[in-house]
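Morning F.,

Quick status update on the modeling queue. The single chain you submitted on Monday has been processed. Sequence for confirmation:
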Amino acid sequence: MKFKFELGSMGMLLAIAFYAISGIVSLAVLPMSSFPPHLGIIGILSLIVAYGLFRKRVWTIWVIAVLFFVAITFSVYTLYYVWGEDLILDTTMVAYFILTWVFTAYTAAKRKMLEN
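Structure tokens below.
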């Protein structure tokens, strides 16, 4: 279970942290927002991706692809319906949208690291 800190693994560590934090936050917000199923799906898939990246599993790329479409749809939908009403929510959704793109692109580019 020791994660080797190599030169290229710092980005992977950031990706693991992003997916783990977004999964925990999604599941923590779930009871406060009347249990919408999409938040539960995003939370569970994010934690599965964080585990898969940590353990360097090849199947993680496919789960990231599914999570990418679910997360982008969620953030665009949320931004469309609440834009301008809550500045904190707007900022959070824009940051989540951008970070989802960044870490999906990063893990797709570094998918060879998962095959070791």
